[in-house]
Amino acid sequence: MADVSVRPAGPGDVTEISRIQVETWRQGYQDVLPAPVLAALDPAAIADGWRAAVASPPSPRHHVVIAQEGDWTVGFAAFSPDPDALDGDPGPESTAAISVLLVEPRWGRRGHGSRLLAAVADLASADGADRLIAWVPAADTSSLQFYRSAGWEADGVQRSLDTGAGSINELRLHASLGDPA
Question: Which terms are listed as keywords in the entry (predicted)?
Fold first, then answer.
């Protein structure tokens, strides 16, 4: 059995996090993101953003976790209180939003995504959240299938993001944490 784990990201993980993001988006999001967006991805600039997220998160409820197999970093997830709560939504104190959950494609189908999702659920629950959400591009059928296989559902809310090179339509998925009763 492989040595697999999920742990909080540290400053030494930032280079791998940004590499995984760039490689995964370029390989797995060719049909999701416009080509100019993918071509413009700058690992150094992305690393700067992750460095801040890992080293000095805005609150104790902002988390970045990484998945490992042996000594290899194979994926990561980041989540925080819901920054975009809509009218009628539970507040950010009870909802955690996954901003990204990626597993490098060559490490796919080994349970890393499920382990990351379970770690997110555990940490968010410990932070007091009782609901998780994630915005997923409607064209990202792999991610939609992954979340749905874990029991997540679309809640009917959609949005369109302007990338500067085209629009991306996203669906909001959600899952309840803990006992619904």
Answer: Acyltransferase, Transferase
